[in-house]
Amino acid sequence: MKRRSLIQLATASVASVALPRYAFAQNAYKAEYKMSTVVPPAFAWGKGGEIFANLVRERTSGRINIKQYPGASLVQGQQDREFSAMRQGIIDVLCGAPINWSGTVRELSAFTLPFLLPDHKAYDAVINNAPLMAEYFSMVRKAGAEPLAVGETGYRQISNSKHPIIKPDDLKGIKVRVVGSPMYGEIMSSMGGNPTFMSWADAQPALASGAVDAQENPLEVFLAAKVNTLGQKYVTKWNYSNDILLYAIAAPVWAGWTPADQKIVREAAQDAAKQQIAIVRKLFADDVQAVSALGVNVHVPTPPEIEAWQTATRRTYARWKAQIQPAFIGKIEQIVAASRKA
User: Fold this and answer.
1) Which of 60, 155, 287, 305 lies at a CB distance of 3.0 to 4.6 Å from 242, suitable for a disulfide?
2) Are residues 194 and 331 located together in one domain of the fold?
3) The CATH number of the domain where 301 resides is what?
4) Residue 225 and residue 130: Cα distance in Å, rounded?
5) In the 3-class helix/strand/coil scheme, how is 296-315 assigned residue by residue?
């Protein structure tokens, strides 16, 4: 009996030492968590990532150190590979636009249909609708990431080197650089444009050389990247698409953090998103004046002109709504319609 008791005591002693070590090994934090952003902090999008990383570092006393990798450098500038790279463990944190990941997780690009969100009133009504966003966040979790918060990438406008684009026919024959989204490509081709898929890094020399005539991006990007120096003389502020900026953590990384740290990180993302949206809105309010001051011709479409664009993209809209997430997009449409009446 005495021998058996000694064995049991020894076993218990070993377990009491081994279990904490095992638990520590399981929950050991990385020295660095890699976050991908397409643009650097000179842009509102990249600034949102920087704010988030700084808040997390401060609030966790350095336990969670998020390092920003702008230019989608973790995937050699190919922003359409970010989500798949996160699944492979190359990227730990995403601060990005789901439209870039539509080739991997198409359903997450539901907010980007042409003219779905006509203005900021509609945009805010949608992203502040708790049941809708809870449903969207469930889709993100199913795809392999923990969603934390939503910012704003900004309304996308079109610029070109040829002539003012006022009506759909004005796009005929124009070679337009678009991000790696088949939907964006189809929007341009449906109006006679010639879409060319390329990263932003490749787009800039292509615009400068005249190999590409046009590009579509928020005017904030136009200003920060000095796109007017790349031969872009004409801008149309048509607000045709505005994607969310999604803050998300790779599911395995999220699972390795304590509940207390998860709470800190989530709140940091929400605070960063609010600050990032405020930056986007200020830039949006001033962008026409700022771009015009560069000697660029800026056209702001009238309501009838916007209606003509909506009509021209209706077939593309219907086709991609059916392919992406028709029931979910239907709910967005209802929220937008209600915001028009409020």
Assistant:
1) 155
2) yes
3) 3.40.190.170
4) 35
5) CEEECCCHHHHHHHHHHCHH
pLDDT at res. 180: 77
Question: How far, in Å, CA of 236 to CA of 246, rounded?
Answer: 26
DSSP per residue over 148-170, as a string? Answer: EEEEEEEE-EEEESSS---SGGG
H-state helical runs in the chain = 2-27, 44-59, 82-87, 120-127, 130-143, 182-190, 200-209, 219-224, 251-255, 259-292, 303-312, 314-324, 326-341
Give pTM, 2 decimals. 0.89
Exposed, middle or buried by CB within 10 Å (0-12, 13-18, 19+), for 69? Answer: middle
Any bridge partners for residue 214, and if so which? 160, 176
CB 208 within 8 A of CB 189: no
Query: Strand, helix or coil at 216?
Result: strand
Residue 225: partners with Cβ closer than 8 Å, 6 or more residues away: 200, 204
Which residue segment(s) compose the domain that 226 sits in? 157-241+287-341
pLDDT at 333: 98
Whether 335 maps to a domain, the answer reads yes
Question: To 5 degrees, how large is the angle CA 283–CA 284–CA 286?
Answer: 70
The residue ranges of the chain whose pLDDT is under 70 are 1-27
Q: Which two tokens stand for residue 193?
A: 């444009």
Alpha-carbon distance of 165 to 172, in angstroms, equals 10
Same domain, 163 and 177: yes
Q: Are residues 113 and 167 located together in one domain of the fold?
A: no
Whether residue 276 sits in one domain with residue 167? no
